[in-house]
Amino acid sequence: MEKKVAIIIPAYKSRFLQQTLDSVAAQTDKDFTVYIGDDASPHDLKNIVYLYQDKLDIVYYRFETNLGGQDLPGHWERCIDMSKEPVVWLFSDDDLMPCDGVERIMKALDKCGDKNVMFRFPLAVVDGEDNVIHENPTFVGEKISGYDFLLDKLEGRIYSAACEYVFSRDIYRKAGGFVKFPLAWCSDDATWTKFADCAGGIIALPGKFVCWRNAEGENISNSNCYDSRKIESTGLFLKWIANYYPDKLKEKKLGHALKTYVHTVLHYSVRDKFSLCELWKICCILRRIHLSVALSVAFRMCKVKLNKKR
């Protein structure tokens, strides 16, 4: 009998991989296959995976070339191509599943079917020692639209990570795969928005949290080596939003969300290490969306720069 769920782990790091696979092996429902795509890692991932051959239905493949360094969403896609199951849970090599994760997916599939669906677990953020440093708010309602998800993310009301989303393969194909930006920065947020709209909304899977690991030095999110690329990707994301939701551009709530988001990226994500040229480019993109939004961002961030010099 064919399995329903493909758990896809695009792998590169070894530090937490065994802990991740322990959480997969602890699932109360075993109706899944695990696919691990080794992105030409310098670490010995194969021997870690070997420890689980008798515990999991697991497929391991080592790619000869590293793709994640240039096109991370492209690596996600080639890992998904390893699988055939109708439902995909894109995971990570350092995150943690709740023990009833697959069981909750199966119950939702019994109710909704395995076509044109997208699910979402509650998310907690943990550090390298498994300490919880953030929990997303409790779900409000059973389903959320792509647009409302986007507003929540832009406004900073939620964290968002790949490991909390489960989607049917037909949605993945209908949406044309992942939206691609440099470093995959903002790629997941654009992708989940698009998938959600294709699915008619994201269905909540309330219960125990999926844990996204944000360990110091392990993720792009907390690294300052890529600040210029992050700003570049932010600009591309803003363009994507303008092209994807042209009918929403005059809405006050979107304008407010965009101002909040750009301030968060420039002030917190890159810690005010942006040039005036980079700020100008961002504001030119915002100008196409709404002049008042662009002016507000320009004034606020120039004031931040001036205060830094004092």
Automatic annotation (TrEMBL):
GO terms for molecular function: hexosyltransferase activity. Pfam families: Glycos_transf_2 (PF00535). Residues 7-142 form the Glycosyltransferase 2-like domain. It comes from the Bacteria. CDD domains: Glyco_tranf_GTA_type. Transmembrane segments: none annotated. InterPro entries: Glyco_trans_2-like, Nucleotide-diphossugar_trans. This is Glycosyltransferase family A protein. It comes from Bacteroides cellulosilyticus.
